[in-house]
Amino acid sequence: MVIITYSETSAETLKENLGEAHYSYYFIYVKYLPVLERIGKVIAVADPSSEVDEIFHAHPEDECIFLSFTPPSRTELNLECPTVCIFAWEFSTIPSEALNGIEENNWLLMLERIGSALTLSQYAKSVVEKQVSSAVDISVIPAAVETIDPAQIPGRLSGHTLNIEAAIYDSKDYDITPENVDDVMFSTRDPMKMQAWNEKPVRQFYGEDNADAMRFLVGFFEPESWGVWTKTESPWLLLPFKVRGHLIIKIELVAYEKNIGRQIDVTLGKQTRSIFPSKAPETYELSFAPEDDVDVLVISNIDVQRTEDSIERRSIGLGIQRLEMRRPRALSNGLSRLFFSGLSRIRGFFDKDINLVGHALSHQLSLEGITYTSVFNPQDGRKNWEQMIMAFCWMFRQQENATLILKMTHNNYLTFLGRLLSNYAKMSPFKCRVVAVHGFLTEEQYQILIQSTHFVVNTSTAEGQCLPLMEFMGQGIPAVAPNHTAMADYINGENAFVIDASLYPTNWPQDERKAISTMAYEINWDSLCKAFENSYQLATHNTSGYREMQINCIKAIERCAGASQVEEKIRQFASTTAKSAGAL
Amino acid sequence: MTLTEQSEFASISMLQGFLPLLEQLGTVVVLDTIDSDFKSECQRHIDNDERVYLFAFAPPHCIPEDLPCSVIPVFPWAHPTIVGLESNTDSVFGLPVSLRAFSAAITCSTFAMQAINEATDSMLHIAVIPAPVWDEWHEMRLKSVPVKAVKKDTIDLKKVVLDSRDYVLTGDTVYPGKSVISPLSGAQDKYSGRTVIAAHFGTYNQDAIGVGFYEPENWGMWSRSLSPWIKLSQTAHGKTLVKLALSAFGPNIGREIQVSIGGETATVIPESQVREFEFSLDIRSPGNVLSFENLSRINRGRADDPRTIGLGVASLNIRMEKADGALDSDYFTAADFKPLHLQGVVYTALVEPADRKDGWQDIIIAFCLALRRQPDANLILVVERTDLLSYVNDLLEIWCKLTPFDCRIVAVQGALNTAERAALIEASSFVVNNASAEGHCRSLMDFMSCGIPAIAPNHTAMHDYISPANAFVVESNSEPCAWPTDLEGRYNTLCYRPNWESLLHAFEKSFEIANQSPDIYEAMSAAAARALQRHCSLDTTAPQLHNFLAEVN
User: Fold this and answer.
1) Which of A15, A149, A364, B504 has the CA that lies 20 to 30 A from A247?
2) CA–CA min distance A528, chain B (Å)
3) How close does chain A come to B462, measured CA to CA in Å?
4) Are both A418 and A383 inside the same structural domain?
């Protein structure tokens, strides 16, 4: 048997694509691979249109099958080799229109043409079957998940401290008062992991129409139509990219009450510039030249006190409207080219070989108490992580012994930092601990994290499979999760604290029009809080009950996606679908 | 509309509702301010052995303390907890702190009473006495009970009306369905005979309202949709000189953009900097819509600015050769506020888009998804206080995201007087509420007092009168939120978010019952009137107030 495979993301391009829309297909591919290798000869291609049929004809005596780990819209058609599209889907309907004017985006049409598909959950299969004709063959084969022996579940670890090369945002390190969110440990932000600037001028508008504006703001009120008010004495503006060398920052702002004409300091890296803002909107042009990569503009010396006759009650100081970041035009073309290419070579060096830098960034993550862990991409709106944090802090406001670890997977930490810190401020004060970890863990460290975890948490509105959830459960960790969409295949009351959810209208992610054409689920907050409460009780007061849940977890994952199960299913599927060129 | 304005409005409404009840007890004097005149007047009555009570319809922290008479705060509350005494003293709005100055208070719901008791350790004498709204609708009940579920009515509200049937909805944008459309501004004047329409888009402008644009910036406004248009305050007709200051972004720079009024088109090619374009049009059939076509699709997804900006409009100047005196009266009435001809099942919701807890968008989506194929299903959204310009683009955008749909969605803008409110009630089959917290829901009380069944959650204040006998109850779940008076926005209390799926089913079921089970509908209607009679009629509240005052003394 020859199994030809194609995935748009590869190991080389993974780091860049981490968190982008297609990356999850790669993780599915990686899970399928060892199983495929036991069944036949696996040949990965980079260009299906030219390579697949070539290989098909080069093996006339062997049965061949082409597995495309791509959505139906990006699966190669009209090949002689039997083609199967393997895709994940989590909404109640599949796109049945030429979205964005592109015919291939009509999955209904594409699936009828491809003829054969594999998906990862019963939910996805039932959704597709409602819409496609019986001519389309659709089967469920989830990506295989490792499980451990239920008789040998290791006890939960406690008190470990991991030295991780990752940025850690621990609620305990932040001096959270409603007045400001100070970064006590300045070094927790990791300049090495920020996204590099492509040198093009960048404009940032902070009005509420720019839904992403909040990401870049720390210590501000919610954006309004025209821009955003500062809230604290020392708010930060996160730049969209890390920068070093000469640059110009233009910032348009107004001052309120005592800040009119006051000396306001703007700091980037080690340099500070001062401005004296006025009542009317004005633009200030500031020139900086940081030697090291920096990405945070700190504004300080704001006076948050109100005047006696003030009608305003909030602690507003400055109203920021927009920011522009660019290289100075003063440099002549020749010089600037040299300068910039020199810069990018240095940057490239740092990006590839962090260890060579010497002061390898290492931060300590201490694991103790009853630990809840969740692994997800914060950019993915379905993950609903803010509700998770709020419910956790709400339930465990007085409980020092409860820890929530959020392992964020996305190459740009800006996607969550602003929101994370704003959540810390909104829910404060709280005695429990919330830690966001951003970076790569080694195998060993990941194992320690898993073994220190008492419960794995998911509060998503929809899932195509949710590998992290299944992986933790496969290691004997009970879940706090809903049982909708793909999770219905393995989450139940015996292995999880099930969170109730109900239908909620939404759009297909690939639809630019954002038409309301499908459904996901909204999480019932009361049920989520109860699940946290009950799980904590179980872990602290009912060891045998907890043990039983652990065993049930492993069994459920084994049944649903155990390696031998998956292998058997793929074999069967391949035997009916694969064909040899010679036989045709 | 600020939070202070909202609560002021609620206070005034409650005060007016209470007057008939207070008038039963004695002489009522309505005051605007509490000043030294009042104090001395008060003292005079007290010296005369008369009982003086000040019913203060305001949040307790706004009520002065040093008064000679008995002061009774009357206020609603919609959250389960009240800011704790031990929290930040900065939070001057600490209710329990301010409540300490009083020995008694009146609130509008059992829910509020429980919250206040908990916060003050039941130290206050509290009574739940809603304003006796029920009695105000006596005439209406005589006239229209039993209420019919399926309507065929025309109401003429003299208010700005946005009707989904007036627009052509495509996936990307919304076009006006004709060249002259109902006004979008509150301007009551008819056509005024001017020859020039001029506007600068650095601020909102009643003479020229952009649809499919972002908020004005100081230089002008950026387009948001692919076919943005500007609604002019009067029609343009005949030989017209048009001056437009435009710029463009991205692929629209150097692109041929079509500008049309009343069916006549000119082409402009905007650049990256604002530039003035001038052209003449001979407009044969009058129009009050200036539209832009042929904008290029923008790629979203840029980290720094994910808006879909395309065309920038800084200003316009439209000059007609002669005043449009020659127009038919037909054209005049087309620009008037239109009467609403309603047929079928009519759902009415009074919402305020400025209030984030109102859930108005979910109402539209649930209505549409439940009754998409029903041309006889009508949803009327009445917005009394929020500025139209702040939500009109959001409303039209939701229509675009929901299209195609056969049902009808209408937005009515402006404060209703009593006669208009009555006309609306008479034309309604159901009243809808989707809020996550209510201290005092006047619209539900008005409609249900007239026998209109509701679609509403049964949390907070609504718990006292909403039941499955008189409403399609929408399930709700807790959600953390900030106290309305906490400007730091810390999430220290709860509200009760209605469950969308439950709202969807409520629309489905109510439509079915209205059309197929008139006897059930009639029973619900009677139950609604009865429940409100029990809750807020003079018969119920007068003795309650009487007993309360007796205990206070």
Assistant:
1) A15
2) 10
3) 20
4) yes
The secondary element (H helix, E strand) that includes residue A388 is helix A385-395
Name every residue whose Cβ is closer than 8 Å to that of residue B91 and which is 6 or more positions away in sequence.
B83, B485, B486, B488
Distance from CA of B301 to the nearest CA of A (A): 10
Unique residue bearing structure tokens 């034309």 = B427
Total number of domains constituting chain A: 3
Residue from B488, B496, B499 to probe the interface with A (highest A Cβ count within 10 Å):
B488
Q: How far is B162 from chain A (nearest CA, A)?
A: 21
Q: Are A294 and A272 in contact (CB under 8 A)?
A: no
- CB < 8 Å to A222, chain B: 489
Query: Which residues in chain B are contacts of A516 at CB distance < 8 A?
Result: 365, 369, 401-402
Cβ-contact A65, A575 below 8 angstroms: no
Q: Would residue A189 count as lying in a domain? A: no
Residue of B304, B391, B436, B494 to mutate when probing chain A, most A C-beta within 10 A: B304
Judge if A412 and A528 occupy the same domain. yes
Write the burial class of residue A161 (CB in 10 Å: 0-12 exposed, 13-18 middle, 19+ buried): exposed
- State which residue of chain B sits closest to A314, comparing Cα positions: B487
Same domain, A278 and A386: no
Residue A495: closest CA among A175, A211, A153, A157: A153
Which among B214, B218, B401 is the nearest to A514, CB-wise? B401
Asked whether residue A310 falls in the same domain as residue A387, the answer is no
C-alpha R_g of chain B: 27
| A166 within some domain | no
Give the domain extent around A382.
363-561
Of the candidates B381, B433, B485, the one whose C-alpha atom is nearest the C-alpha of residue B157 is: B381
Of A240, A425, A525, the CB nearest to B479: A525
Instruction: Indicate if A124 and A17 belong to the same structural domain.
Output: yes
Please enumerate residues of A whose Cβ is less than 8 A from a Cβ of B. 178, 202-205, 207, 209-212, 221-222, 225-226, 231, 240, 281, 313-315, 390, 394, 412, 414, 425-428, 502-505, 507, 512-516, 522, 524-527, 529
Q: Do both A554 and A572 map to the same domain?
A: no
Report DSSP state, residue B477. E
Q: Are residues A246 and A294 in the same domain?
A: yes
A358 falls within a domain:
no
A266 and A273 Cβ atoms separated by less than 8 Å: yes
**Digits of tens for pLDDT over chain A (584 positions)?**
899 999 987 766 665 555 555 567 888 898 899 999 999 999 999 999 999 999 999 998 889 999 999 999 999 998 999 999 999 999 999 999 888 778 899 999 999 999 999 999 999 999 999 999 999 999 999 999 999 999 999 988 888 888 877 777 788 776 544 333 444 333 334 444 455 677 778 888 888 777 666 677 888 888 888 889 998 888 888 887 778 888 899 999 999 989 999 999 998 888 889 999 998 888 898 988 888 777 788 898 999 888 888 878 788 899 999 898 888 765 444 444 444 444 443 333 333 333 322 233 457 788 889 999 999 888 777 888 999 999 999 999 999 999 999 998 766 655 677 778 778 878 888 899 999 888 778 888 889 999 999 999 999 999 998 999 999 999 999 999 999 999 999 999 999 999 999 999 999 988 877 889 999 999 999 999 999 999 999 999 999 999 999 999 999 999 999 989 999 999 999 988 888 777 65
- Are both A542 and A401 inside the same structural domain? yes
Rounded to a whole number of angstroms, the distance from the CA of B72 to the nearest CA of chain A is: 26
In A, which residues are within 8 Å of B91 by CB distance?
A: none
Strand partners of residue B289: B231
* Spatial CB neighbours of A570, under 8 Å, sequence gap ≥ 6: A32, A35, A36, A39, A141
Write down the pTM of the prediction: 0.81
CB contact under 8 A, B504 and A178: no
CATH number of B190-334: 2.60.120.260
Q: Does B151-156+337-537 carry CATH code 3.20.20.80?
A: no
- Asked if B3 has any chain A CB less than 8 Å from its own CB, the reply is no
CATH number at residue A485: 3.40.50.2000
